[in-house]
Specification:
About 65% of the residues lie in helices and about 5% in strands. The chain is mainly α. The chain folds into two domains: about 70 residues, no CATH class; about 140 residues, no CATH class. Strands 1-2 form a two-stranded antiparallel ribbon. Strands 3-4 form a two-stranded antiparallel sheet. Helix 6 packs antiparallel against helix 7 and helix 6 crosses helix 12. Bound molecules: zinc ion (ZN). Zinc ion (ZN) binds next to loops.
Length: about 250
Amino acid sequence: MAVTPSNSLVHIVFRRQLDDVLLFNKGTSSITYDLVQTLRTYNLADYIASYVNTDTIPSKLAWKSLIRGSLQDVEQRKWSEMLSMKKANRYHNIQPHLTKNIIYDTMERNIHMRSHLQILIKILSVPENYYLPMMCELCNQVVSDSVEHIFMRCEQLVDQRNTLWDGLLDRFGVSAEVDLFNREDGDILEILLGKKWSYLDYDNTNDIDNLFMQVAGSMNNFIHSMKVDNRYQKDSILQHLTVMKIVL
Ligand SMILES: [Zn+2]
C-alpha cells in the first residue's frame, strides 16, 4: 500500500470532493463523482472506504492488476448477459470469451477491405430469429435465419456461393473442404465467421486474412445480388439487414 501525502492541496481538495459525493451526494458533475461511480461499477468501491479510513491506496502496479481483473469480470458478465438476452447464440458459439474479435485483426491489416469486413463483424451480432418471419426477395422463401439462408441455402445465390467454395478449396485443400461439407450448415457458417477450425493455422495471418477476406467478398456479392433484384418488401432479408445497420 502506498501512503498519499495527506497535507497536499490536491489531497485536501480531493477529500472534500469525496465527502461531497459520499456523504451529501453532491458534486455529480465532478471527476471525483465519475471516479466513484466507475469504482462502484467494477466492484472496487471497498478501496474508497479504505482510502477514506486509512488515507492509503494500493500501489500503481497493484491498481493496474486489480482494475484489469475487475474490468474483465464485469465486462465478461455484461457481455454474456447481453448475448443471452438477444439470443445471439452464433456470436456466443464463435467467441465465448470477451476478447478482441479475430476478424477485427484482419480488418486492421487490410484496410482496403474494411467496409466488407465490417459487415461480417456486424453479421455476428445479428440475433438469430430476431425478426420473424423474413421473406427472401430472391427465392421468395420465408426463412427463420436470414444470415444462414444467404450464406448456405438460398438457391438463387448458388453461383456466388460456389465462388466462395472454390476459393477455400484453392487455399485450404480438399481435405479441409471435405471437413467443411461434412458439417451442419450452422456449423459451417460459424467457422466462416471465426469459430476455431483445425484447418486454419492461427499463427499464420495470411491464412486467417485469406479466409475472412474471401468470406467478406462473398457476403458483399450476396448483398449486391439482393440489391440488384431488390423489391424492398417489408420484412425482406435486405430490410432486416438494413434495420440492423449491416447494409447501408
Ligand atoms: Zn433465398
